[in-house]
Known about the structure:
With about 350 residues, chain A is α+β, with helices and mostly antiparallel strands. In chain A, about 50% of the residues lie in helices and about 15% in strands. The longest helix of chain A is centred in the N-terminal third of the chain and has 29 residues, at about 90-115.
Amino acid sequence: MSFRIPIGPYHPALEEPYKLELICDGETVQDAVMNVGFNFRGIEYLAERRNYLQGITLVERVCGICSNVHSLSFCQAVEQLNGAEPPERALHIRVILAELERLHSHFLWSGIAAKLMGFKTIFMACFTLREKVMDALSAISGNRVNYGMNRVGGVNRDIADPQAVLNILDEMERGITRTIIPIFLNDKTVESRCKGVGILTREHAKAMGAVGPLARASGIGQDMRRAAPYAAYDRFQFNVPVETAGDVQARLVVHALEMIESCNILRQALTTLPEGPFQTPPPTAARFKVPAGTAISRVEAPRGEVLYQITSNGTDIPERVRVRTPTFMNMATVRFAVLGQELADSPLIQASCDPCYSCTDR
Amino acid sequence: MTTETVGFEKTLQELGLGEGWKWDKGSWWLTPLNAADVRTTALQMIQLQARFVAITAIERPDKEIRLDYQWDLDGKLLSFVSATSAQKIPSIADLCPAADWVERETHEYFFVEFTGRETTKPLMTRAGDPLGINLHKEVAQ
Lengths: 362, 141
């Protein structure tokens, strides 16, 4: 006999609202229907009724975790339109913020995944390390979330003491290499809970346009930092971890190895931080003009590629602001990952796709 | 234009994607604009193993809706522009499942009908909500 089990929009495992209807035969999932939109705020509509400077503040509110990538993408698109060129120091600072944000997001995700697999010690370890990232972000920007760092033509704040961030980085790296990586890669509990569970095949990932760590755990090796470098990413050496198993464990491994790569990038960016200004002169009404045209910016957010397309009609209000977030592409893949799986595994499988419904719904 | 993009238009021509490719502010655009047949293009892109990225609808001052179809080919973003004054355009969701959510969202925001779909269930809004919620002028259902 087949049962239809509605889960959400107030979800028992994840804090954001969405609804998943699972069609089960006994304890086995036969199909799934995803419903989103419970967090729809009309950000694109609002951005097309505000000026560019207000738009930066607005788009940073798309997401509470990867807020920086939204203002970064927005500013990069505007810079292409008006020709503003951020100084080299600003490009390095943008990379530093983006990688700290990636670490913060990956620690959060790893902690939640550990909690859902019943491994609360690792949940605590991840959140302890995450606090160190939040301390670094707070020291740089003054905020734990919504950092307000990006502006057209650079960043709003300098990193006055790179050594202090490097010291925090040393602590984080020790925690990742001594605790997170060995457990995610070798622990029997993790293996028994995650290996072979929630497989997303490369074919399904490709057909659904999946991006980011989810796609890289299914053998699709694209990363915007490498494929279409922005900010200062083309100055740094780093690897793009790719796994082929497509299961929950592969997603754990990709996230864990990406944390190490983020530390590598951060170390390079902090030790080679160029001298000089971190912003072009502040815009005035006369200087801040955005000529008519269309520009597209793509950034590798913690969950994958973010795309901003901005069309200007020459006024101070954009004609169109298009925001395509990674989870918007990734969440439809859950249907394939849960097919044939145990009902009890579905929260972990959903969480392993690293969903962000604030981003999806906008 | 970065060094990687110099000469890429010739590669696109050799792949059979037509002439008139131009790099402009973050994407390769097939010019003249408004020329792309969305289903033919989708089939070509799928054959080339390109990844579907997005559809961006833009409301023009004359109320025509411009639709930019974006695909990623080995890290290069390709944009094909199509437009609809009748607010109807063929769906590509049967060819490319990744386009399903994007078409549903575009239908809600800009009242564009994607023909050939069995259903266009609401994605961000709910059944019975007005369509065209991103249009500058109110459009009655």
